[in-house]
Amino acid sequence: MGLFCRKKKFPETEGEYLEVERKSGGAEKSSDSRKIYASASPEDRKRMLIKRLVEMTDKIDEISTQIYHLQQRIEVLEKKTGIGRGE
After folding, report:
1. Is 38 within 8 Å of 10 (Cβ atoms)?
2. Is the same domain home to 86 and 49?
3. Among residues 11, 14, 71, 86, which is most buried (max CB within 10 A)?
């Protein structure tokens, strides 16, 4: 699984939804979320977008913390083995 996953844009109209569904062959989970999004009011779409952005931000923060801890572990191992990073 990669760090960045491309998500398809949600269709704006039912016609666009059907076209995307026909082209993609659609997985059931994404199909359900497209239907929900397509039938949502603008306020609901805004809330869904905010929720998704918060989740993505949290995930990025979590990954950033993991990278930091891995860098710290590498530095400790380099000191123990006497290998320099050359920086």
Report:
1. yes
2. yes
3. 11
pTM, two decimals, is: 0.51
15 φ, ψ (degrees, to nearest 5): -60, -45
Residue 14, phi then psi, degrees to nearest 5? -65, -35
Q: Which domain holds residue 47?
A: 43-87
Which positions of the chain have pLDDT values less than 70? 1-31, 84-87
Query: How many structural domains comprise the chain?
Result: 2
Same domain for 50 and 24: no
Q: Which residues contact 13 (CB under 8 A, 6 or more apart)?
A: 38
Closest CA to 33 of 43, 20, 62, 23: 20
Asked whether residue 4 is assigned to any structural domain, the reply reads no
